[in-house]
Design goal:
The structure is a single chain. It is built from 2 helices and no strands. α1 runs antiparallel to α2. The radius of gyration is 14 Å and the shape is elongated. With 65 residues, the protein is mainly alpha-helical. The protein has one domain.
């Protein structure tokens, strides 16, 4: 497991990037007819959702400190 030490600004930027990627994936998943490609995009979206949860958790820990 990799551990990153990020500033509040860096966490916010990563969070914004994840949100943007999630929106792009939502559109692309909806638009594609290739089931294999669609499944790969869904897996990628799942990874981004986990990353988003970790980032939000990091922000709340940062605020509590």
């Amino acid at each position: 497991m990799i551990q990153l030490n990020l500033s509040t600004d860096e966490i916010q930027l990563l969070n914004n990037l994840v949100d943007s990627c999630m929106e792009d994936l939502r559109v692309e998943i909806h638009a594609t007819d290739n089931m294999g490609y669609k499944e790969m995009l869904r897996e990628r979206k799942g990874i981004l959702m986990k990353l988003e949860a970790v980032l939000k958790e990091s922000q709340s820990v940062e605020l509590a400190v």
